[in-house]
Amino acid sequence: MQHELKAxxxxxxxxxxxxxxxxxxxxxxxxxxxxPESTLELVHLRASQxxxxxxxxxxxxxxxxxxxxxxxxxxxxxxxREAPYFSAEExxxxxxxxxxxxxxxxxxxxxxxxxxxxxxHYDEKQLAAIVLMVGLTNLFNRLNVTVRQPxxxxx
Length: 155
Known about the structure:
Distance between the termini: 24 Å
Number of helices: 8
């Protein structure tokens, strides 16, 4: 069943006036953790793909390009395990993002080996930035999917 490419409503973060600036401040906070912006953008893109948020995937690709992510990585991020383009650090962040996004898929949503692999590459402040980015992405995905915000259309 197809639906019209029109949002059901204005994004809730714009209807509730304090929500927009609050979420934007949280996004800014993720940039203070010492993780390369390109890695945070890959994390955002992968979580958005998992959640089938067309708006966030479209936005994420554009943001990732601005952050210097190569087209090779953008085209392969959904298959990062099989693609040679990602560093060990990016792989650890992507694995953490996938597990933290798919919480209901298993009783041990983020197994120790996934966490430990990320902790081998990132310090606590950096892990905080990645975890916060994953949480925010999941929030944005849920808002945009629920209101059916179309990809490529401004809010």
